Prior knowledge:
Elements: H1 3-12, H2 28-37, H3 51-63, H4 69-84, E1 88-90, H5 92-97, E2 108-111, H6 124-136, E3 140-144, E4 154-155, E5 160-161, H7 165-181, E6 189-194, H8 200-204, E7 217-222, H9 224-232, E8 235-239, E9 246-251, H10 252-266, E10 270-273, H11 274-279, E11 291-292, E12 299-300, E13 308-312, E14 317-318, E15 321-322, H12 324-344, H13 353-361, E16 365-369, H14 371-378, H15 385-413, H16 451-461, H17 475-480, E17 495-501, E18 510-516, H18 518-526, H19 531-544, H20 555-560, H21 569-580, E19 590-593, H22 599-611, E20 616-621, H23 624-627, H24 633-640, E21 663-671, E22 674-683, E23 689-697, H25 703-720, H26 725-736, H27 755-770, H28 775-791, H29 793-799, E24 820-823, E25 826-829
Parallel strand pairs: 2-3, 3-6, 6-7, 7-10, 13-16, 19-20
Antiparallel strand pairs: 1-13, 4-5, 8-9, 10-20, 11-12, 14-15, 17-18, 21-22, 22-23, 24-25
Amino acid sequence: xxxxxxxxxxxxxxxxxxxxxxxxxxxxxxxxxxxxxxxxxxxxxxxxxxxxxxxxxxxxxxxxxxxxxxxxxxxxxxxxxxxxxxxxxxxxxxxxxxxxxxxxxxxxxxxxxxxxxxxxxxxxxxxxxxxxxxxxxxxxxxxxxxxxxxxxxxxxxxxxxxxxxxxxxxxxxxxxxxxxxxxxxxxxxxxxxxxxxxxxxxxxxxxxxxxxxxxxxxxxxxxxxxxxxxxxxxxxxxxxxxxxxxxxxxxxxxxxxxxxxxxxxxxxxxxxxxxxxxxxxxxxxxxxxxxxxxxxxxxxxxxxxxxxxxxxxxxxxxxxxxxxxxxxxxxxxxxxxxxxxxxxxxxxxxxxxxxxxxxxxxxxxxxxxxxxxxxxxxxxxxxxxxxxxxxxxxxxxxxxxxxxxxxxxxxxxxxxxxxxxxxxxxxxxxxxxxxxxxxxxxxxxxxxxxxxxxxxxxxxxxxxxxxxxxxxxxxxxxxxxxxxxxxxxxxxxxxxxxxxxxxxxxxxxxxxxxxxxxxxxxxxxxxxxxxxxxxxxxxxxxxxxxxxxxxxxxxxxxxxxxxxxxxxxxxxxxxxxxxxxxxxxxxxxxxxxxxxxxxxxxxxxxxxxxxxxxxxxxxxxxxxxxxxxxxxxxxxxxxxxxxxxxxxxxxxxxxxxxxxxxxxxxxxxxxxxxxxxxxxxxxxxxxxxxxxxxxxxxxxxxxxxxxxxxxxxxxxxxxxxxxxxxxxxxxxxxxxxxxxxxxxxxxxxxxxxxxxxxxxxxxxxxxxxxxxxxxxxxxxxxxxxxxxxxxxxxxxxxxxxxxxxxxxxxxxxxxxxxxxxxxxxxxxxxxxxxxxx
Length: 837
């Protein structure tokens, strides 16, 4: 077909399932999030455009990537309608950057790091300079530190000793921390180190100290050779990257166990299967893949970026069936939209390599969201064989039509410039047609797919984009579209309490609303249930976090409406593996474990994920980020009686000196923020005077942990400066008790309203101990505080401000609600849709 004939065909093309509407259907909480996140702001920070205006701004600016005026007009309309009907949504930077002077439409990049200080492009400090410039635009970065020589190696030029990659990781971390302190929005970062690097053990533990490497996610690049040695319990060589020589030989299983230990306790390091990623590297002639973006779903070459958009699968489900024509049109337009984004992105002009890399290989990452919602609507249990079949067929269909569209774009516009020597080189196509993880048994009435058609198209025209699919985090974007299943994740909770503040001020201004999954509510409404019974089921879901223990509920509802906590870890991995077969990039997903999961449990899924062909794995053991505080140095010091490094920094002339050994008690108490550990140490001639207090809560290095540490220091300074520490403690209690926050936990006299209130309750117990109250009674009262919320269902309906669905959630740094959950390898707030990614 001649190019002019092709253009005529494009101009007249009708997307028969695309509706023409003038006003997008976004309202309520989704509307507030849209205005806060996506709408442009005036000088006062207030939204200055409506939802429709924002959508037109994005559609018209992206459509400028088309080649001629007629096509620009045509696709402005198509793209606007695509957004307005909630069938597709681009990543957040496209909303914030399109049509603005910044013009930066990419969220993340990968930058190379050479074993060189900065004389060359890609040197350690040359890359740091580029990364800082990207961070200033709000972009995130991924790095591999694997090429840096190990600590203790010789440096020939200076005749010195190398400090190793961890020292430079800490330097990067400090620089990014300064950017955040300067008031600029901070992008996320990923640090990767190969498992065969001599400094791998230091890397695994680099985040275990409080406040260290706080601006990075860390992941180990796992090789096939290492995993085989683990299974065989054999030796494994650590290699000096400077010369390729063996630095040390270790036991593979011991090193693997160390990785698992820290992943189990804190979710990090993550695991990246680097050899599997490189087996699907589309341009192996250009580079080997070494690192991913901060959320792990995009393996990228040097200076390449994430160009992301998401298909809303739920919008293509009608009467429990998938409208395949509808979905196809969405995929076709979404693919074209992202290719235009590559053209329209301004990147970071002061780092020209970013634009060069993007245009050379034209990577895009079309993903999806609403998979779990689709399963709810079709009555399929997430994690079942049926669900794997459904996910596999959907992903295959999306990949097929995205590739087909990319081939048509290559015919119209030309193949990506770096195609020669790639797996898509028309002269020597080495790309292999993808195959499903299992036989497809579910009859979904899906149109047939002929992969040989794609191979023929590549040989004839090449392909426009070197990669096509990615399943990326969709926290904010999902909420804006009214979808509960982020990316390919299961739904986190069917119902929970959401705090809404009516005006600025204290917790008294809050209005607590009950949020119920719309699809769950619809299923209940269709069932033959009384209003009282429906209300009871919802309340049970809020307080227990699941409906799977209910016996008097319709079986079809119980079967389909599972939440993340109901899914077995192996089912999480199987779902990821089934989808990965048709995703040429990678997948952002969290494999959730219940409380009590062992390190051996985590180890099994790491091996399983590698064997099934996943390209990475992120795990989270429920409650683990609360337990890891017990392993911090400060807590260890308190347990063995040694002097903490961080003493109270108060004028010693007004304070009693601290002995080298003190004795005391550590109390565990539930707070609205999770479990807190409050240690009260005593001193004095009798050995009973209260002397210092330590408060530990939350993940080491988190904002909450820092507040708690500061809290303890202030109390300790007060006690050590008083001639009557008992009176001082009583005064502290009077100041702290009954301080109320947005949420509380427990009931009656054991109700804990805030972290200060929790500390006050512990100090009251300590005062009672000093007055002769038996310690056994104290332990019973504290135990009641930590267990009542999960054992007294009838009371919790009336009094509890929290729910079992969110009992292990963290505090959102933006809205302050205890609704920050682990999902898609990231953290996302169910209350306000804040996302760390």
